[in-house]
Design goal:
alpha+beta
Length: 133
């Protein structure tokens, strides 16, 4: 094989691997929306834990970077993805362990775990909108 033919084959393999890598990352990495209005629900409960998930170091952890809270309701405990930390800081969202909140969001499954993607969060007299869905 000539050197130019080898370069052409290498370029094709490189591009193919790049597309395969993008496809393997899942719908969110490709910019597709995960929020499904058909699975929207309202949950009221107490914040049991607050966690900041950074990407890409923890990208496999529920697949979403940002602020997550564990919400304990009368019937379950579920991880709620509130949104990217920079957005929440800009909106002055303040949620802490022990807070009583009402969350409207869509139930999805990420990495085999149920997650609620928040659309709105209400705490006391404050209501924050996370998404326009």
């Amino acid at each position: 094989m000539t050197p130019s033919a080898r370069q052409a084959v290498s370029a094709v393999v490189f591009v193919a691997l790049g597309f395969a890598s993008i496809a393997a990352q899942g719908p969110q990495a490709r910019g597709q929306r995960m929020y499904t209005p058909a699975t929207e629900t309202t949950l009221t409960g107490t914040v049991a834990a607050v966690e900041t998930v950074t990407r890409p170091a923890q990208a496999g952890r529920r697949g979403l970077g940002g602020l997550h809270v564990t919400l304990k309701t009368s019937g379950e405990s579920i991880v709620v993805h509130l949104g990217p930390t920079a957005f929440l800081t800009e909106q002055k969202v303040a949620v802490a362990e022990g807070d009583s909140v009402e969350v409207v969001g869509a139930r999805v499954t990420i990495d085999g775990e149920p997650v609620l993607l928040a659309r709105t969060v209400k705490k006391g007299d404050n209501t924050w909108t996370m998404s326009d869905e």
